[in-house]
Amino acid sequence: MDTRRFSALIDGFLLSSGWNTVAAERAIDEEMIGLRIFDSPLLGVATADHPLFRALRGDGVIGPHFLLPEEWLPGARSVISFFLPFSESVRRANRADRNEPAPEWLHGRIEGQRCIDRLSAFLVEQLLQDGHSAVAPSIEDRFISCATTNTVFLDDDGVPLQLSFSSNWSERHVAYVCGLGSFGLSKGLITPKGVAGRFGSVVTTAPVPPDNVIASAVYENCTMCGACVRNCPVGAITIEKGKNHILCAEFLDLTKRKYQPRYGCGKCQTGVPCEHAIPAK
Fold first, then answer.
1. Looking at residue 75, what is its pLDDT?
2. Interhelix angle for 103-129 vs 88-95, to 10°?
3. Closest CA relative to residue 252, chosen from 267, 266, 263, 268
4. What is the 3-state secondary structure (H, E, C) of 67-107?
5. C-alpha angle with apex 263: 259 to 264, nearest 5 degrees?
């Protein structure tokens, strides 16, 4: 199996599964029925033993709580990361109001994640049918995000780690190792199809040929233009310090109370030069 087959499988799933469109029973209003959430994917593959995965365990990156591919799946040989860019309909709607998330964006954030979870399970099943072991860490029971739980991570010596907004498998960082792009001021990953979208990944024993050309600098694709700084409704991003996760999370909590069961913002991903492409230097 190679990236061409994975790409075809993802395209087929998005087209025919029904998970890539908003169903009538879940639509915020009638105008949202049938909304297409994602466009065609971007894929990258890295070997499971790539040294950068271990580097993610370092202080100041993710930390020792990050689980390596072989810790998710003994015998792992490949990590396949995919980026699903939001459709033009989702992106265009979210450009309209600087302060409030568009209904289309709210669907993209919540129904879009449901689509990715189902897609991840589908890809695992395809690999199993081909005779390979596979897991999608973000939908595994062992996946933990301390931004959404009260779980305390321990270091290798059993000492509690003081962490926030972290997890034991970061889709953005995995995508970076798999060569899908580099980070921006908003901490989103800027891919050749832009920053507006969502990531998923699969770890497998299948020997998928690696194709990851890793960015030469962490912020290689970011021009530091400041558009995301100006767009942020709560001033959570600065040129000097990047994104303040606490301010961002507090605003997301407000949207969660206002739009529950959905939430979202995405103003740093839409109406910016890196929205759907790598911006010109």
1. 98
2. 150
3. 263
4. CCHHHHCCCCCEEEEEEEEECHHHHHHHHCCCCCCCHHHHH
5. 130
Residues 119-127: contacts with CB under 8 Å, at least 24 apart: 119/10, 119/13, 119/14, 119/17, 119/19, 119/200, 120/200, 120/201, 120/202, 122/9, 122/13, 122/17, 123/6, 123/9, 123/10, 123/80, 123/202, 124/202, 126/9, 127/1, 127/202, 127/204, 127/206
Q: Position of tokens 């890793």?
A: 214
Residue 135: its H or E element: strand 134-135
63: left (phi over 0), alpha (psi -120 to 50) or beta: left
Q: First CA to last CA across the chain, in angstroms?
A: 36
Partners of residue 80 on adjacent β-strands: 45, 202
CA angle 229, 44, 74 (to 5 degrees): 115
Structure tokens at 108: 């993209």
What topology does CATH give the domain 3-220?
NADH Oxidase (3.40.109)
Please check whether residue 68 is in contact with residue 137, taking contact to mean a CB–CB distance below 8 angstroms: no
CA distance linking residue 29 with residue 101, whole number of Å = 15
Reduced to 3 states, what is the DSSP secondary structure of residue 167?
strand
- What's the full length of the chain, in residues? 281
pLDDT of residue 174: 98
**Locus of tokens 């970061």:** 170
pLDDT at position 149, please? 41
Q: Are 21 and 35 in contact (CB under 8 A)?
A: yes
Which residues in the chain come in under a pLDDT of 70?
A: 146-165
Query: How far apart, in whole angstroms, are the C-alpha atoms of residue 209 and residue 179?
Result: 13
Spans of all domains in the chain: 3-220
